[in-house]
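Tutorial handout. Part one gives the primary structure; part two gives the three-dimensional structure as tokens.
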Amino acid sequence: MNVQFNVLDRQYKKYQIEYEQKALKVLRNGWYILGEEVEAFEQEFANYIGTRYCVGLASGLDALIIAFKALGIGVGDEVIVQANAYIACIMGITINGATPIFVEPDEYYGLDASKIEEKITDRTKAILVVHLYGQTSNMEDILRIAKKYKLKVVEDCAQSHGSMYKDKKSGSFGDIACFSFYPSKNLGCFGDGGAITTDNKELASFIKVLRNYGSQKRYHNEVVGFNSRLDELQAGVLRVKLNHLNELNEERSLIADRYLKSIKNERIKLPGVRRNVSSVWHLFVIYTQERDKLQNYLNEKGIRTVIHYPIPPHLSDAYKYLGFKEGDFPTTEDYSNCIISIPLYNGMTEDEQNYVIKAMNEYK
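Part two.
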């Protein structure tokens, strides 16, 4: 049997009629940028997350860049962020001219709140919290620290659509939250897409200006902006998928529960879930000191895996200028050398799940 890491068309086929009806409606409408579908999705997604406002954008990276731009964070400013984040998170900071200040992650791969305060200086302006792999970070402690030092909080929710911390969804805690709708995300569209959520009316209005060349009225440019607009077609299919997101997340949770209960191998450490958090299992990330050996073994069995992420940002060529070296962030580097994601996706059959479980348990 062959088990792919992800098979995107299965959830498409599950709601195929709804997707195609929506696509035809948009195509026949003749209005393709910033129309009624975008406006409706922004309101519906804000309601789902629990914020007052949502602004649709062209990608998750654009959301990060525009978020820091809207907050006025730039040259000379510092932003605290976990060292094991995806490099796009760091790009959102540095493209604005600010400096990332790396902090080690905790055992759940989220920002370790206990290590934040030692990194705060008079140049620190914000904390970027990245909700990795499907579960919300330790927001209670992070928000307490942010309030104490009067810091902005930016959430990266690219992998946590629908994840809860206590009774609130990720994306509803910070001053600004950034979302990606890349096709593989829990709420993914059929191309690129992104959004920002916030409770701040002024910020939301400014972000709408920034996304559209810096203008509210055509040819009246107030600031230097971007071309970053969620298009009508993607907004339409996102509206369809949003109606089914809880169902899709529940399916992922059931598969994850099977893995957690059925995979029993002392050479493999299964992921934990933080207290008071409900994960949406964007990824099922395991830890092993024998990653290459395990990955080769699974590949021979026809089971595809992915490493998230093999090179941490501080060791990437893109950020050599920051001056970090191997050993500066040992926990992050250990994760980058030892974690691997196994298949978990919507539409994954019971036979495929059983095959993965059996292979994992037979690994020696």
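Part three, for discussion. The chain has a mean pLDDT of 98. The longest strand covers residues 124-130.
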